[in-house]
Amino acid sequence: MNNLQLSRSNLNRFAHWGPFLSIVIYKFITLTTLYFTELWWPCFGSLGGFLNNALFLTLFVISFSCYLKSVIAGPGFLPLKWKPINLEEDEQYLQFCRICDGYKAPRVHHCHKCNRCVLKMDHHCPWLNTCVGYSNHPSFVIFIFISIIASIQSSILLLKTLLLVLAQYGHRVLIYFPLKLTLLWITAFGLAVCLILTLSLLLYIQLKYVLKNCTNIEDWIVGKAISRREQDPSLPPFIYPYNLGPINNIKTFFSKGDGIHWPVREECGEYDLTIEQLEQKLIKESWKQPMKVIKNYNGRWFPLVFGLCVCCQIPWTDETRMPLNIGDVIQVTRFRKYWMYGHKNLSNGTRLRGWFPKQCVETLSTSSKKDK
Ligand SMILES: [Zn+2]
Ligand SMILES: [Zn+2]
Question: Where found (predicted)?
């Protein structure tokens, strides 16, 4: 029953604009390419035509099944209420997640979109409508790689179609190309080129992570660890514990462990990264600024009531917007010209986070003076 519920909730991930648009775009490019190629290089007209179609469809099937696997398998979540075996000894090295009511194992991060602690979390991907993490990271990288090859083949075939159409001017018309087909061609070719460019950049970043055995979040943590030591050379050096050399890193990336325990370098300990995270968290806590809400905000993305500037300069991220009520106290951690990001503590011990217009709050000290 549990498995049935799990697979049903995993399939629910498709009921979102991300997977819907991904599948529509992917199908559109594939079918359009097949249609145009059939006009001048029919599948059953020659051996070359057949092999070309077979290669294109094989790439499509592999990449699409990797995409489906990435969505359905998901990243892998840490069990709720998880705690280490040696709790008394190890709890000092681990962060606690109030929402999942458990400790965060090494390489685990809580995703506010998935609302769960994610094993070896890389990032939350809106196109998958779930996180990329321990379970689906390999299929995600293979999906990107094969999709680039399929998009290159698609754009070459579409370009060849255009060249044939241009070459037939003044000659016998072989391919009829009315306006509707021209628009179809432009859209498919534009999308294929966009996919090649964006996915190539993504693949480059992901391959760097695979070779270093790190994730997007860990790369960020390591960057902060290095800059901390540049500012304060008295700190002990930080060695990223999971970098076991390129060959072992690739093996680790594709191997199946439990997603909780990871091999580390000889000179490092199991909790080196989590200890660094705890230290960075303490510094972050000291930066946050408490502010008092002076105007209500309903959590809309384009709150016209606060003026055009606020609506035109919204933070372009899929992070949540936080509704505010007068009198709330917000711990602000990020500042933009017209928006702020922060959290408020709820009575059940959890935190609500999100963006809100800057003019809704003022610093606590100012508001308390006014109150007097
Ligand atoms: Zn959690
Ligand atoms: Zn997520």
Answer: Membrane
